[in-house]
Design a protein that fits this description.
The protein has 255 residues and is an alpha/beta fold. The chain is built from nine helices and seven strands, in the order βαβαβαβαβαβααβαα. A seven-stranded parallel beta sheet has the order 3-2-1-4-5-6-7, sandwiched between helices. Helix 4 links the parallel strand 4 and strand 5. The longest helix has 29 residues. Bound molecules: NADP nicotinamide-adenine-dinucleotide phosphate. Keywords: Oxidoreductase.
Length: 255
């Protein structure tokens, strides 16, 4: 039976890696992001390598019309989507007291409202088919006091937990993936130097994505990735909030 996954933010970073690993597992794909040329290049590469079917669905998820087009694709009965990866995201670089409120709204919408909207679109079909998975890319920041980014990610962790608790009995598994620092374009786009964290603190996208997909397969409600952050997890409550707030794990509170 053909399985299909829709990945948001598939043009770069974790999303492109999700597309690669899912295609290697034999999933047909629907790729969503704003940059159509990057999506098409990835689609051609994956279709040639794995022989899978790849749809390209360019969309700005902060545009209401585009968002509804993606929601409609998720709700479609034809070529149904079995796995939704809610991954697209960015963080506001400026300190909270100095940021533009419209940037805060856009970040909150992309990280919190968009995964809710898309989960709402895909769930009825998954329930009717008795199977499906939703992987929400949250962040370790969702459990830490690291700015308004933390607040948005905490919402998606809570949503994942609630949906997992309610819909596992219907065959639909919902998993929150909580990475620490990962080498992608994320910090570059924020204008934050990679030197905010020592090299040893950065995880590779491939191991984070592998952890996320394994947790989804095992029907876990949440997973912290990668191993170095799982090791650090018990010690994080010992670190004073004001130190965590200055790390730049999500948005910055300093400056
Ligand atoms: N990197 C980290 O250290 C880290 C840590 C924890 C959690 N995360 C989370 O991981 C997820 C993926 O981030 P990443 O690290 O892979 O960052 P990235 O390399 O910057 O990729 C972000 C992706 O999101 C897409 N995107 C951004 N705005 C969009 C919009 N309005 N509509 C549609 N797509 C949009 C981008 O594509 P286009 O520009 O083509 O639209 C891109 O494909 C995010 O949710 C992030 O919060 C990252």
């Amino acid at each position: 039976m053909e399985m299909r996954a829709l990945v948001t933010g598939a043009s770069a970073g974790l999303g492109a890696e999700f597309a690669r690993q899912l295609s290697a597992d034999g999933f047909a794909l629907v790729l969503v992001a704003r940059d159509e040329s990057r999506l098409r290049a990835l689609a051609d590469e994956l279709a040639a390598a794995s022989g899978i079917e790849v749809e390209v669905l360019p969309a700005d998820l902060l545009d209401a019309v585009d968002l509804e087009r993606v929601a409609a694709r998720l709700a479609a009965d034809a070529r149904p989507v079995d796995v939704l990866v809610n991954n697209a995201g960015f963080a506001v670089a400026e300190a909270f007291h100095a940021s533009a409120i419209d940037d805060e709204r856009r970040m909150h919408e992309l990280l919190s409202w968009v995964p809710l909207r898309l989960s709402h679109a895909v769930l009825p079909g998954m329930r009717a088919r008795g199977r499906g998975g939703i992987l929400n890319v949250a962040s370790l920041a969702g459990r830490l006091p690291s700015g308004s980014y933390s607040a948005a990610k905490a919402q998606v962790v809570a949503l994942s937990r609630s949906l997992h608790a309610r819909y596992a009995r219907d065959g639909v598994s919902v998993t929150a993936l909580l990475p620490g620092f990962v080498v992608t374009e994320f910090h570059d786009r924020m204008g934050v130097s990679p030197d905010v964290v020592p090299r040893a603190g950065w995880a590779d996208a491939s191991s984070v994505v592998r952890d996320g997909l394994r947790a989804l397969r095992k029907r876990r409600r949440a997973v912290v990735s990668d191993w170095r952050y799982r090791l650090a997890l018990p010690f994080l409550p010992l670190v004073p909030d004001r130190l965590i707030a200055g790390t730049g794990l999500g948005g910055r509170l300093d400056g």
